[in-house]
Specification:
This protein is mainly alpha-helical. Helices cover about 45% and strands about 5% of the residues. The chain has a two-stranded antiparallel sheet with strand order 1-5.
Length: about 600
């Protein structure tokens, strides 16, 4: 890991500013680092917290759109407007061009030397396919097959590939990568010191390639079902799937990396936990509740400050919402009323009742002004160095699980329930729930999710084996031929809390969580409901390629490439999304 970090530090000189890319991509005489160093740099730049996930654009927007969180006073402002963010630029400036340069350097070596580097090249193909899927997921038709031909070939007006063609090319690249990794090579470069994700473990890279293929299959289900089933069948036949948390596609830069604050996560409004999600997690005694969200400040000390407990807001129902959710290490019982989510419905009758909800975040305050509503766990989502009310800087490090074992388990359970493959859907489902709990517990421990509430320090409380077993055995969560597919979707939705982009895609492709569900229900945001964007307009490329950009938008049926009106971004859908159900309809 130390060697990896030294390489990353050295690369700051190489790519310190995005503006340098124009020259780097057109001048072949500029010196570049060796291929293994480029491979490391790309992995470092893919970390979700930084450029890969745009934590203050995408996390803020899609966490509210999917109703993981609520913005402001029950989504009372421009919740459905967008800020495109930087992911598109990250792909072209920091990922695709560097991986292309890496491969070009290797292609100029002798045939024997090319074989020597072949498995690292294959891993680079998987990295690229993984991130390219994230780009086309949101932008549709994109420059891809010609997108990295600028520096060596002077191609500054690459064609926009159709989304369907992009997805097919990604599948070809993943299949080719697996074949390259399977080949028996007498002498192969050991790229483990350069590999943040898998430390050069080829077997895990192959499993990761198959995981990306299954993600692609979910995008094809409503547009090309036969191709989706072909992918699922081939992956199942291959058999090399994630088998445990050890196989997960994880970026861990070590104990020195705690993230950076960047712009304010709450750039469009203060964020609170969403009432529908919080209440569902409380009703099922989901131990991830204390990982996702912060308890409020209504400790017994706060309650005792009220001369008459009857004067406490009904939002904090100490008489009825008093089931013990868990007990802290020092013996404090955390009751249900310690987790209060904010309604996602703008017209909730209690929103404007004076003192019904209190919209302040005061971790050091005890009494009537104590924090009432539960916040998102800021050290889980924002940065590990976040300090609550004067707590010392924590010692945890930020980690990203980009594809989890639990995601694979839930996809397999879904595919079996839909008849695309055979197997035990309930077994995959149970394994997915267990793995999700264990993965989030890993986040809690490694990111040191200590917090302060009502002037009291709450160290991270690890999940116990009893909590995990009790959750898995909860009768309300079992597959029993009643709403089985919905139960799988809900658990996948919960699992995607740290990947809100995937949670939003799940909502788009399935229609779940759905309005009026007896399980986890999506809430109306307004009446009539407001439209939420289902895509992001592709950035304008500049004069050299503006004509092809305009044509690509026309080809996709977009009336204006510059139109960011939410209703337009909802109705004018990308190719993969055209046949998917409406958000909240539960139609797929």
């Amino acid at each position: 890991m130390k060697k990896v970090l030294y390489i990353i530090i050295g690369l700051v000189i190489f790519t310190g500013c995005d503006d340098d890319f124009a020259e780097l991509n057109t001048n072949p005489n500029i010196g570049v680092p060796p291929p293994e160093t480029l491979f490391t740099y790309v992995q470092k730049e893919m970390v979700t917290y930084k450029n890969g996930g745009e934590w203050y654009h995408e996390n803020h927007q899609k966490m509210t759109w999917a109703q993981y969180l609520v913005q402001g006073r029950a989504n009372d402002s421009d919740i459905n407007t967008i800020l495109p963010g930087s992911k598109y630029g990250t792909f072209y400036v920091k990922i695709l061009n560097h991986l292309t340069e890496m491969r070009l350097q290797i292609s100029e070596l002798s045939e024997e030397e090319q074989k020597f580097y072949q498995k690292m090249v294959a891993a680079s193909d998987i990295l690229q396919a993984f991130f390219a899927l994230r780009i086309t997921d949101q932008y549709g038709d994109i420059p891809y097959s010609e997108a990295a031909d600028g520096r060596r070939e002077g191609k500054l007006d690459p064609n926009y590939d159709k989304q369907e063609a992009v997805l097919m090319q990604l599948l070809d690249e993943l299949n080719s990568a697996i074949q390259k990794m399977d080949e028996n090579i007498s002498s192969s470069y050991n790229f483990s010191p350069n590999d943040i994700a898998y430390q050069g473990d080829i077997s895990k890279w192959i499993k990761c390639a198959n995981a990306v293929k299954l993600r692609i299959a979910t995008r094809l289900l409503s547009q090309n079902e036969s191709k989706a089933q072909e992918i699922i069948t081939s992956v199942v036949s291959d058999g090399r799937l994630f088998e445990s948390e050890d196989d997960q596609f994880t970026f861990d830069l070590g104990g020195t990396y705690r993230g950076a604050p960047g712009a304010d996560f709450e750039w469009k409004g203060v964020m609170w936990s969403a009432e529908p999600l919080v209440e569902f997690m409380k009703s099922t005694l989901d131990p991830r509740l204390r990982i996702f969200f912060e308890p409020n400040g209504y400790t017994q000390e706060t309650i005792d400050t009220f001369a008459d407990p009857a004067t406490i807001s009904p939002a904090v129902d100490i008489d009825n919402d008093n089931e013990v959710l868990y007990t802290t290490a020092d013996g404090e019982d955390i009751m249900g009323y310690r987790y209060i989510g904010l309604p996602a419905y703008r017209n909730d009758p209690n929103i404007n009742v004076p003192d019904y909800y209190q919209f302040q975040d005061q971790p050091n305050t005890v009494g009537s002004n104590a924090t009432m509503l539960s916040k998102y766990n800021r050290r889980l989502i924002q940065e590990c160095r976040f300090r609550y009310g004067g707590l010392p800087e924590p010692q945890g490090n930020y980690i990203d699980v980009m594809i989890s074992y639990s995601e694979i388990c839930f996809m397999m359970s879904e595919f079996i329930l839909k008849g695309y493959t055979s197997g035990d859907a309930a077994d995959w489902y149970r394994k997915g729930m267990e793995s999700s709990l264990r993965t989030y517990n890993m986040y809690g421990e490694k990111q040191d999710l200590i917090m302060r509430v009502a002037n009291k320090e709450y160290p991270y409380l690890p999940l116990t084996e009893d909590e995990i077993t009790n959750y898995l055995d909860n009768p309300a969560l079992q597959l029993n031929d009643t709403d089985d597919l919905e139960k799988v979707y809900i658990q996948q939705f919960l699992n995607f809390y740290r990947l809100p982009e995937e949670g939003w895609i799940l909502s788009m492709r399935t229609g779940y969580p759905k309005y009026g569900s007896s399980l986890l229900a999506r809430s109306e945001t307004d009446n009539p409901e407001i439209p939420f964007p289902r895509r992001i307009p592709p950035p304008e490329p500049g004069d050299l390629n503006v004509a092809k950009w305009l044509q690509a938008n026309t080809d996709q049926g977009f009336t204006s490439p510059r139109d960011e009106t939410p209703s337009v971004l909802n109705s004018q859908r990308l190719w993969w999304d055209k046949n998917n159900p409406a958000i909240g309809s539960g139609g797929n």
